[in-house]
Amino acid sequence: MLSNNKLESKTEQLSIINQFSSSLLQITQLDELFDYVTSQVVSRLGFVDCVIYLADEQGKFLEEVASMGVAHQSNDYKVAQTRIPIEQGITGHVARTRRAFVSGDVSVEPMYIADSRPALSEICVPLVYEETLLGVIDCEHPQRDYFTEGHLQILSTVAHLLSAKINQVKTLNNLTKTIEQLNQAQQLEQCLLKIANITYRSLDLEAFYDELYQIINSQLPAENFFIGLYDRYSDILEIDYLIENQVKCNAHQRVTKAQIKHTASYFTLTSGKPLLCNTREFERHIELGNFQMVGQSPKSWLGVPFAVNEQYQGVIVIQSYTQDKAFNHHHLSILTYISRQVSMAIDRQLSRQALEHRALHDELTGLANRYLLLERVKHAILSLDRDDDDNSHCLLYLDFDRFKSINDALGHDVGDHFLVAIVNKIKDCIRRTDTFARLGGDEFAIFIENVKDNEQVSLALERINEAIAKPLYIDGHILQASTSIGVAFTDNATDNAITLLQQADAAMYEAKSRGRGQVCYFNNAMRKKLKRQADIENDLQHGIKNNEFELYFQPIFALNDPHVVSFEALVRWHHPKNGLVPPNDFIVIAEQTGQIIELDLHLLKLAAQQLKSWRQEGSPMIRITVNVSSRHFASLDFVTYMQQLYIDYQLPNGALCLEITESGLIENLKLATKIIQGLEPLGVKLYLDDFGTGYSALGYLHQLPIHVLKLDKSFVDQLTHKENPLVDAILSLARSLDLKVVAEGIENPKQWALLKRKGCQFGQGFMVSKPLPAKEAMQFLIDNTQMTLSI
């Protein structure tokens, strides 16, 4: 059974559709087909209830033909309503409108007809083929809001294929009757069946056309034959398959509207009707101005148009230039049938290609995505075992420098256009056999196979840097690109694709730390660092479960009237093997792996527990601030978690507050603001940590509902030797926005005096106290104040 998350995978959708399409080849009876859909296909989607209804010949009723489901405690499931008037219920509505219907709560749907089985969610899609209603697929589920957009997409695809299969089976049945009635040769029947089979069996259109033509040529005078696919959006006809005088010619010729608009093929396409002509009739159409003579006049001409989808329509044409090979209405019937099979084959191929492309490529740039990159890396690494040459493969990891500032300053549209422009420049610098992939955001990778020597990679790097060195003109802005590049090699068939990507990533971060536009090759020092990071990543989860993390508390104090006003909670990890691990050694890794979410929630809980413990001991009430990742400000679930902490540990309003870095809030300013506002009833104050080390938040600061700025230690350090005008500017900015300021890293009286004189209200640093364990921190508070501190 698929979970909702699993269903969202385009690769899983494609797997279901491909398996379903392949299985259709083996099914020739409608009963078997319907049973297969309900018992095998729909059940893979995780549905517990599915009914297939077909419309009767008069289109007045929907009649049940197959079902799957569970009713109450009984496994003996029967559909309560096997025949539904088309005017009634949700199924009737879908049948009449021929549009899919999804409801997360059918109890509020006036169209819903109650059944004996419990249901809250319902999804219903029509079975339609060439604008003809065949029936509906109706699925229900006892959970509210069960069905997702992914369910709708894949069920609609199943319905599309099922409709085509139903139509095929019915068409074959009708055709068999026609053949029997007309006493046609058994050979024709076999040929038509072959065409139907290859329509579903062939995964490659070229191979499908080859097989198709061999069958057609055995039944029709098809010495001159072509299949054209017309793109309505671009007004271009692509000749997909071409036979001239029984010789296969170069296909995939692209013909513009100006070139084809006077042809009989274009007339057939635009009229949407088949055209059967002898020489006289062909000339009559020319006289009427329907088309013009292009090339040699045919003795007989037959063309059949067919629809594919909203964008494409096609035409099949056969022409004869000899009097003894003329076409008749029997040939028209055959070619009409063939056109339908071609339509289904092309539509299926286009659908498959679209699904594959979306699953394996980046939507913005059209480049390979992470999954496709890793698959190609895996395949290439395995080939090293079979390659006698002394080759290796190389992975370049690119991160565009200061791309985020372009997004922040000029908007995401400009940023997107900037990325696309850079990608197009880099494409011209690499081989067509190289895999260029977008990994996410402004991070890209280029996989270079079969590298002979390092010089080959060096030349590629030079070409890339030269290509992006020139300024780009994007939406009226002159922008300069540069990229930090990490390089890693693999030459052993036992290597791992993920490991290679991690190595190139580590080299890229090393390059980025050296400045803009740098290149760095992965080395042993980085290998050791990666190993240590991997060990920490594995140990983090155990550390949370085994309660190995402890909070230390550093006092925040008033500068004018010296007394402690709050504590900042700082985490320490008591690693069972490595001893006390400082946060700098694991917080970054937790951020990279996503483990920071669980760790933050654990630390917030520890802080709440400590506040409750101090309160029960009768200690003075004090505020604690906890550093949290910006990832929490992307989901309203964080508000719910904080609310529950305040309830579970009976915290006074404002007792537990948050610190976050300045870049974290502006990634989704609207949602972050909503989350902060959701915390206001709890009295939660938001401290903006490390303020001044970046610049991105300055443009948004007035929009953020924050309360306190924390002046970064790097500014305070300079005050020991000289004045820093940036400190004055930040303090002035804070006053204008009515914000408090905490200066971090105060280590001597001169810093204290200067900050106090400049109007900074609060400080934090070793001059007063280093971070202390909970018991020592509370004793420090008691020893250094004679008042119960109000928060």
UniProtKB/TrEMBL annotation:
Segments forming domain EAL: 533-785
Pfam families tied to this protein: EAL (PF00563), GAF (PF01590), GAF_2 (PF13185), GGDEF (PF00990)
Domain spans labelled GGDEF: 391-524
Coiled coil location: none
Source domain of life: Bacteria
Name of protein: Bifunctional diguanylate cyclase/phosphodiesterase
Lineage: Bacteria, Pseudomonadati, Pseudomonadota, Gammaproteobacteria, Alteromonadales
